[in-house]
Design brief:
Order of helices and strands: EEEHEHHHEHEEEHHEEEHHEHHEEH
Number of strands: 14
Number of domains: 3
Largest sheet: 5 strands, antiparallel
Strand content: 15-25%
Distance between the termini: 5 Å
Shape: globular
Structural class: alpha+beta
Low-confidence stretches: none
Mean pLDDT: 88
Helix content: 25-40%
Length: about 270
């Protein structure tokens, strides 16, 4: 994960207006806006989020903000521009770095920052990020949040409200293909079908957690060394090295294998 402060050159440089987080795998951007920032301080595209008191900008609009600040992919002399900047292919993140996040529409720019500084300012919000999400029968989902809270919520009503969820209703197997968005920013089924983590955290409706649910959790969440290596596209030796460096934590050790939480392995891919 790469983290940046979004600043305005016309105001105090000690005051980040927002933060940009980039997850190299799968190449997603997310913007976090501090709650004390007003709609007049942030770039125009982000002001509507502040008006609605939504301070985590989803992957679609975060990417739009980035695209406003880089050379578009349909630029006529794009090949020449890429060669002049030492790029072999179009890469939104590398182009953003080359431009330092600047554009003609405002005075904003980006500056690298340690993730710890973001967590220190927005710690409570990051506690509401999703650690793991387990799809259950009848459009229920078991959610584990970073602040250690657990919810089993029914999404039946939510999925019937909007047209974008229709593919999940039409395909009985689609719901089970649920994934956690990078950084725990929500759950998704593809690039266009997602639910933000804040919305899930605030859901009041909870349903009982049963023994059958627990069995599904184990089946979905616990994986072997071989599966962990496959997910991370590495060897068993690499897995052992991650364990030695305290970067990966087996939940059970056996003579010939180890068991890991799928959610922790997936988070390794975001870093």
């Amino acid at each position: 994960m790469k983290t940046f402060a979004i600043k305005d050159s016309t105001v105090s440089q000690e005051k980040p207006l927002a933060y940009l987080l980039y997850y190299e795998i799968p190449g997603m951007f997310f913007i976090e806006i501090p709650e004390e920032i007003s709609e007049w301080e942030v770039p125009l595209l982000l002001s509507s989020f502040v008006k609605r008191k939504k301070y985590t900008v989803d992957e679609f609009w975060s990417k739009k903000w980035v695209q406003q600040r880089i050379v578009p992919p349909d630029r006529q002399n794009l090949g020449e521009i890429l060669r002049e900047n030492g790029l072999e292919e179009y890469d939104e993140f590398k182009l953003l770095l080359l431009a330092e996040g600047r554009c003609a529409q405002d005075d904003c720019y980006i500056e690298p920052i340690e993730p710890e500084k973001i967590y220190a300012r927005l710690g409570e919000r990051f506690g509401r990020k999703i650690r793991s999400a387990i799809p259950l029968p009848k459009e229920n989902v078991l959610l584990f949040f970073e602040n250690e809270s657990v919810k089993k919520c029914s999404l039946e009503k939510k999925l019937s409200e909007k047209r974008k969820f229709r593919p999940l209703r039409d395909d009985p197997n689609a719901f089970g293909r649920m994934k956690v968005l990078p950084g725990g920013n929500g759950i998704c089924w593809d690039e266009f079908i997602s639910i933000p983590n804040e919305e899930l955290f605030q859901m009041e409706e909870q349903v009982p957690f049963t023994a059958d649910d627990f069995n599904i959790y184990i089946e979905h969440e616990v994986i072997s060394t071989a599966e962990a290596a496959k997910r991370l596209e590495c060897t068993r030796q690499n897995i052992e090295d991650l364990i030695r460096r305290n970067k990966l934590h087996p939940v059970k050790r056996m003579p010939k294998s180890k068991l890991f939480l799928n959610s922790e392995v997936e988070r390794r891919k975001w870093k």
